[in-house]
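QA checklist item 7 of 12: single-chain prediction sanity check.
[x] sequence parsed
[x] length recorded as 208
[x] structure emitted
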Amino acid sequence: MDISYDYLCSVANLTLAWRKARKGKTRKRDVVEFERNLEKNLLALHQELKNKSYQPMPLTTFVLRDPKTRIISKSNFRDRVVHHALINVIGYIFEKGFIYDSCANQIGKGTLFALKRFEHFKRKVTRSNKHFAFCLKADIKHYFQEVDHDILIVAIKRKIADENVIWLINQILKNNANFGMKRERERVNRADSTERYAFGKFDFAVFC
């Protein structure tokens, strides 16, 4: 499918991506620092993406207890802007293949939507609580860390022909893979990120 890499790199798209990336995070340190020189930083990203010199910054880590203790890693804010810029352009291509009940990182499909869908299926399966039923709660261990990026790229290329877009996706995946190799012994669980959910869900939909 034809995709405009020029638009992906455009200041207009990066500005839209910045607005999405900052939502609910305006007081975060990396957001504040980025916005001190907003125009300069957006123009820098524009040039780096345009001439393909863009390099993601190393991921940072912190400990989250919810209640299980996990080591979480996240991308720098400038890289999250790039993630949103990418998804602005390619997201709809993959979202068309998701089932209706796929909720993660989907606009208008938050916790309340998921709960209502669960209640709908519960009533349907139990025939309004007249029959006993089971619900399976499952998780794929280290899913984002274990996704084979080579196979994932092959699958993505079936949807996207633009080699510049593929280059950018590889840059993002390579940064995640390098971090995963360094932290493998610590059994890192990575933080939620727009591009990880999108590619992870696509990979799961294609191969499972």
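[x] summary fact logged: Strands lie at 60-65, 69-74, 189-190.
[ ] second reviewer sign-off
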